[in-house]
UniProtKB/TrEMBL annotation, chain A:
Matches recorded under PANTHER family: SPERMIDINE/PUTRESCINE IMPORT ATP-BINDING PROTEIN POTA (PTHR42781), SPERMIDINE_PUTRESCINE IMPORT ATP-BINDING PROTEIN POTA (PTHR42781:SF4)
Organism annotation: Pararhizobium mangrovi
GO cellular component, as recorded: ATP-binding cassette (ABC) transporter complex
InterPro entries with a match to the protein in the record: AAA+_ATPase, ABC_SmlMolc_Importer, ABC_transporter-like_ATP-bd, ABC_transporter-like_CS, Mo/tungstate-bd_C_term_dom, P-loop_NTPase, Transp-assoc_OB_typ2
Molecular-function annotations in GO: ATP binding; ATP hydrolysis activity; transmembrane transporter activity
Keyword ATP-binding in record: yes
SUPFAM superfamilies listed in its UniProt record: MOP-like, P-loop containing nucleoside triphosphate hydrolases
Keyword Transport among UniProt keywords: yes
Protein name as catalogued: ABC transporter ATP-binding protein
Coiled-coil intervals: none
Family classification: Belongs to the ABC transporter superfamily.
UniProtKB/TrEMBL annotation, chain B:
Keywords: Cell membrane, Membrane, Transmembrane, Transmembrane helix, Transport
Protein name: ABC transporter permease
InterPro entries listed in its UniProt record: MetI-like, MetI-like_sf
Membrane-spanning intervals of the chain: 7-30, 60-83, 95-117, 143-162, 198-222, 242-264
Provenance organism: Pararhizobium mangrovi
One GO process term, biological-process aspect: transmembrane transport
UniProt keyword annotation of Cell division present: no
Amino acid sequence: MNDRTFLKARNITKRYGKVRALDDVSLDIVEGEFLTLLGPSGSGKTTFLMCLAGFVEPSEGVLEQNGRDITHMPAEDRRFGMVFQGYALFPHMTVARNVDFPLRVVGRGKAERERLVSDMLRTVGLEGLSQRRPSELSGGQQQRVALARALVYEPAVTLLDEPLSALDKNLREQMQDEIRSLHRKASGTFVFVTHDQTEALSMSSRVAIFNRGRIQQIGTPQEVYEKPANRFVAQFLGRINLVPLDKAETNGSWMTGSFEGRTLVSSTGGETIEEPVIAVRPEHMTLDRREPTNDMNAVKATVIDYAYGGAHSVLQLRCQSGLELSLDVGSADTNVPVTPGETVWVSWPKETGFALSAKDQQQ
Amino acid sequence: MKRHVWYWGLIAPLPLFLAIVYLVPFLGVVRWSVTEPQLGFGNYVRVFTDPLVLSVLWRTLRVCVLVTLATTIMAYALSYIWVFASPPIQRLVEFGVLIPFWISTLTRAFGWLVLLYNRGLINTGLRDLGLIDFPLTLVRNEFGVVVGMTHFLVPFAVLPLVSSMRHLDTRVLTAARGMGASRFHVFRSVLFPMTMPGVVGAALITLIFSLGFFITPAILGGGRSVLVAEFIYVQIFQTVDWGIAGAISVVLMVAVAALIALFIRLTRVEQMVG
Ligand SMILES: Nc1ncnc2c1ncn2[C@@H]1O[C@H](COP(=O)(O)OP(=O)(O)OP(=O)(O)O)[C@@H](O)[C@H]1O
Ligand SMILES: [Mg+2]
């Protein structure tokens, strides 16, 4: 990734009465990247996007575009591309007129406008539908009109607020691919909002995770998924097992402690952690009938439930201390005991677990 | 089956009542128009040839169109504020729009008389300020009639407009702003076209109501700018020319019915499209 910071948000806070919709948010947006804002409902994603677009003025903080302060610049002067949740197409205009609107606003010539609109409609695959009204289109087609309208004037940045949340699963996946390919073709900067973690991980070059108006972590999908900064991020990005450690000691980048009398080791950032737990993704754990002899972390547990899920099935287990674990197992894997009540060993490589604090904020 | 009888038994008095108090008298009026003073369509020929009747019809049309324009424009502005302004201002407008419904036509017309009269508040005020030497003729003419009727009709026009603005997705306006459109451009190419059904509805309602206005133009026109309803009244009670009164009534009735049909048709189409 290059280092050309294009938009820079510094200590942005937005208050609505006593509610802090955004709380000291700082974020650099790099030119050409696909940045996703991910977080639960009410975490401030839309508010942040609206601050970027200029529809909401921050209570505190500074927003810079290429080093220039644009905190108080009105939206119509920023002219960032925007795809709203629910699309916000003009219902009284045809598809072509919708896409033409931003070009008309700046008074581009007629011939140029016609060329740009028809090129754009071809890019999003709507060339045959240019004379229809939005109400005569399917959800996915409306979505594409909204994208075309946001991209046609080549805005400095395109902001997309949960553009796919209204679509069914198949169409959603198809549109994810299309948005990514549009991003490559347009070679612009995209800021994309979603509360779907799978979507965020598969589409983005970087993910910023929001909770309660604060950014919890920013990083590549792999970084935030495999090395979450705190318990909230770890749990928000997917199922995770948290194994509490007793008498934990940190030694360089490794932490050692005990659980039910067994010694467990995990990677750590090096800082001291209050009430440490080892966090392990279900897909990193494996099952054995006998105690493993290699130097993996291992704990003993009883099978309590098995949920078949096609390619991967989910196994629920309970340790002696009452801690419940969740495991992914390949359905084709025949050595797996699936009878509830059976006692098994669960193990995972030391480097796949990471130490977190159980006290970290949690939704 | 039995329940049906019940329903009809309960509902029947209403249509019966309406038939007796509206339909029967109207048929009587239709009869006058073709029998007084003699059998034939002479009265209808007079409606469209008699210069006096024609001048009343033209004046009515002119006044009503002016009233419709003024009412719709004012109602649009009020509705916009009612829907989009801050809550305290919204409440103020709501109050201002709904209060007139509780005040009688007569009171409102006399209220305007007090304001617009030669020695009324406006004229004495302007004279005291030294802005005019002679009183302005603000009443007993078409101007006074238009003012009074507009004031009466604005609240009726506000309701369909407010409803069309309430149903508008405001993100559409935000989107237009975000693409760089000025406030005026947003109004002209997004807000106004999108609220067009409300505008048409408000204008038609105003026009339909205004055609039959009687008390307000009678008081504020002061017998000088007589509209069609007052003219019919005069033909019946003063000149006792029931034939021409009946013919004008029928023409007015047909015009209003046509407008109502148009209104229903447009609102239906609107429902089908939207
Ligand atoms: N105009 C407003 N007035 C008052 N509070 C607001 C306003 N807009 C947002 N908030 C509050 O700010 C917080 C953040 O809202 P925001 O819309 O940014 O959340 P979000 O992350 O986009 O959620 P979602 O996923 O549900 O869209 C919420 O608690 C919300 O109630
Ligand atoms: Mg939102």
